[in-house]
Design a protein that fits this description.
610 residues, Purple Acid Phosphatase, chain A, domain 2, 9-stranded mixed sheet, 21 helices, single chain, alpha/beta
Length: 610
């Protein structure tokens, strides 16, 4: 059964499965814009991180396995549609995952042999735990209940403790001021089958073999607040010793932003590494070097996998990894910068370190596949713009239907006729003449806007990209009007029937054509915000993954980037004992009808030396 069928059994499941968010749906656009605006406004005046200083901050740690090492998992951008999110958390909850070799590995070679990786002792959720905005119901229906249902009764061995979960808030978690996030992840309660241990929106966790796991909360891309820095000085830098290695989890890949549009984007993380990880300032103001260093940066926010490795000859390279494949729509990879320089040359960072170069060494999907997926926006179902956002289809169709009536009214004034007679008797040539006149007036308006600065002694204003989108929609509207005038309306049809058929047909047909015109505009747009709609508008559910990470007793960290090409969409419902799930009202859980999908390495395991 699919998500719709599962939703009818929500009482048995204890939650309501949700569809993937349709980001260009008019209702969703409006709701998200209002919520994001309010979230940003209140975040400026009521920073919830400042109040967290009153919460307890006890040391956190993940105990070692009997062999002295530990396995742990990292997943980001979860809590969107049921199918991708539940597929991912089911793989995380499985006692072991059998993993195939990366694509391109020669069959029969040692590297092509499947490996079996055990479940992590801890799970890090790297940000944007729910979509489209944070709320108690969204956390329950899009993530928390799924993390509970994914655990098979008896999945833990006798005496085995539940794995821990540490969560980092992303921008979508911040839209309610972090209220729901703190209720779910900072109460030291069970989150599904995982046990929450943190008490704030950031954390520092001691791992075996001189490794540390750190999550920093930069709010909505701003800065590290004073109480948070004090927390890290007391719970991290005060305990760091020479040779210690740190994994830093951040909400966004600010290192990529430095090469795209903001050379100062990495400054906060650079400051954290320099002033908190590499040195410690005690209560007396004395500063000493810790001898520790950040060896691995992890983030989500971009819904793909990308790894940058430092260019170095005399020491093991540092790694910058983005893995936001936990459930949200897939993002493109073909526009990623091939090289980063950190700190960025144009940065305003005071006393920065010597710049270091990082090369893009792996991405998934690969660039060729990313380009093919982007072009799907212009196609038919399942990923075309109109088919993934039916509300947008109806909206654009309605706008063009109103434009049709307006054009009929204007032409009626010219011909001294009423709009219905215009639809019956006017010719397509009349519509095209009206369209050309509209185009001329638009050209005059644009010319005035472009040349007006010359009167003030300034350079002419360059027309924005949005003009192309407007021109395309006007062309669609004019062509639609001409097509309606070309229809040989039967004389016996009443006027209201002609008007109704013309209006309804325009909504249906012209709405689809208008969506295709909008898709074409999005595909050629260079504006970063508009270009980001190329993938978000498609809400691609497939191509999901997470990181399984091993810290060995000798201090070597190995990163296994795991992914599935397709997620589960067919589910069975099996009965469970409510007492076993600690949820007395829950009587059933979904399971994949055909088993979980095959898991494959995105690239060969990445070794990070301490």
């Amino acid at each position: 059964m699919d998500v719709t069928a599962l939703r009818r059994r929500s009482k048995e499941l204890g939650f309501t499965p949700q569809d993937q968010v349709r980001w260009l749906s008019p209702v969703e656009l409006a709701r998200t814009a209002v919520t994001a605006g309010l979230g940003s406004l209140f975040a400026d005046y009521t920073d919830r991180r400042e109040t967290q200083a009153a919460l307890p901050a006890t040391p956190l740690s993940v105990p070692a396995d009997p062999d002295g090492g530990v396995w742990w998992d990292y997943m980001a951008d979860t809590g969107d549609g049921f199918d991708p999110t539940y597929t991912m958390v089911s793989l995380l909850a499985a006692p072991r995952v059998d993993v195939l070799a990366p694509d391109g590995v020669r069959a029969g070679s040692v590297a092509a042999r499947p490996v079996s990786l055990p479940r992590g002792r801890a799970l890090v959720l790297g940000g944007d735990e729910v979509y489209p905005v944070s709320s108690t119901s969204n956390y329950e229906d899009r993530l928390k209940s799924l993390m509970r249902a994914a655990w098979e009764p008896g999945a833990l061995a006798p005496g085995e403790r539940e794995p821990a979960v540490y969560a980092l808030p992303g921008n979508h978690d911040w839209y309610d001021g972090l209220t729901a996030f703190l209720r779910v992840f900072a109460q030291r309660r069970m989150v599904g089958g995982w046990r929450s241990e943190q008490t704030r929106s950031y954390f520092a966790v001691r791992l075996p073999a001189k490794w540390w796991l750190v999550g920093v909360d930069t709010q909505l891309g701003t800065y590290l607040d004073g109480p948070q820095l004090e927390y890290f000085r007391r719970n991290l830098s005060a305990h760091l010793e020479p040779g210690d290695a740190v994994v830093v989890c951040a909400p966004t890949p600010t290192w990529v932003h430095t090469a795209e549009d903001d050379p100062d984007a990495f400054n906060s993380l650079h400051f954290f590494e320099r002033e908190v990880v590499r040195c410690h300032t005690d209560d007396d103001g004395q500063t000493r070097p810790t001898g520790a260093s950040v060896r691995l940066w992890l983030t989500g926010d971009r819904h793909h996998y990308a790894r940058y490795a430092e260019q170095t000859d005399d020491q093991p390279p540092r790694q910058l990894v983005t893995c936001g494949l936990g459930g949200a729509y897939l993002a493109e990879t073909h526009r990623l910068p091939e090289q980063l320089v950190l700190p960025a040359p144009g940065s305003k960072m005071a006393s920065p370190d010597e710049p270091a170069a990082f090369d893009l060494v792996a991405r998934w999907p690969d660039a060729a596949r990313s380009r093919r997926l982007v072009r799907g926006l212009l196609g038919g179902p399942p990923h075309g713009l109109a088919f993934r956002n039916p509300g947008l289809w109806r909206l654009l169709g309605g706008v063009h239907a109103v434009a049709l009536l307006l054009q009929a009214f204007v032409l009626g004034l010219v011909q001294r006729s009423n709009p219905v007679l215009v639809l019956r008797n006017a010719s397509p040539r009349d519509a095209l003449d009206l369209g050309w006149q509209t185009a001329v007036w638009l050209a005059v308006a644009v010319a005035v806007a472009v040349l007006l600065p010359l009167l003030r002694g300034r350079a002419p204003r360059r027309p924005g990209e949005v003009l192309l989108g407007v021109v395309l929609q006007l062309a669609v509207s004019s062509a639609s009007f001409a097509a309606v005038l070309a229809v040989p309306w039967p004389p016996g049809w009443p006027d209201w029937v002609v008007l109704g058929v013309a209006f309804g047909g325009t909504v249906l047909v012209t709405g689809l054509v208008a969506c295709e015109a909008l898709a074409a505009y999005i595909l050629v747009a260079r504006n970063h915000t508009v270009a980001s709609w190329q993938m978000s508008a498609q809400s691609v559910e497939d191509y999901k993954g997470f990181l399984r990470i091993r810290v060995d007793a000798d201090g070597r960290l190995t990163l296994y980037p795991l992914a599935v090409t397709t997620v589960c969409r067919d589910w069975d419902v099996v009965a469970v004992d409510g007492a076993a799930t600690h949820e007395p009202g829950v009587h059933a859980r979904p399971v994949p009808a055909g088993g979980l999908p095959a898991v494959r390495l995105v690239e060969a395991p990445v070794v990070v030396e301490r």
